[in-house]
Amino acid sequence: MEIFNFEKEYTTTPYARNAEHDKEKNGEDFEKNYLSKWINKKQEVLIKVGNLELPFSDSFVDASFCKLIRQNRELFDKYIKIDNKTEDEKDLQKTIKEVLARD
After folding, report:
1. Model pTM score
2. Which of 6, 29, 35, 39 keeps 20 to 30 A from 58, CA to CA?
3. CA angle at 36 for the pair 70 and 25, rounded to the nearest 5°
4. Which of 90, 80, 15 is nearest to 46 (CA)?
5. Element (H, E) at 47
6. CA atoms lying within 13 Å on the CB side of residue 83
7. Which superkingdom heads the taxonomic lineage of this protein's source (predicted)?
């Protein structure tokens, strides 16, 4: 299983849904260039998160994690794991549940 340190390898400010709000680091980009690639390669990944400058926004989470969960939760759960040790990781899991509950 690969370990992905979110704030070191991606961003400490996961707030933008798309390039309109942040050209380089946004939810659509993270879904396309990381989450989807891992799933398509059948690569199991453990996402670790800590020391974010800003918490995960609903927009970022909806455009990345929740998009894939809606498409195929079974594949998402098989390949993408979120650690549950830090407050940022717990916050991410909580935000995913809240966004999906609105559907």
Report:
1. 0.95
2. 39
3. 100
4. 80
5. strand 45-48
6. 16
7. Bacteria
CB 99, CB 66: distance < 8 Å: yes
Phi first, then psi: give them for residue 46, nearest 5 degrees. -105, 120
Which amino acid does the sequence have at 27? G
70 sits in which H/E element: helix 67-79
Model confidence pLDDT, tens digit, residues 45-79: 999 999 999 999 999 999 999 999 999 999 999 99
pLDDT digits (tens, 9 = 90+) for 70-103: 999 999 999 999 999 999 999 999 999 999 999 8
Distance CA 103, CA 8 (A): 31
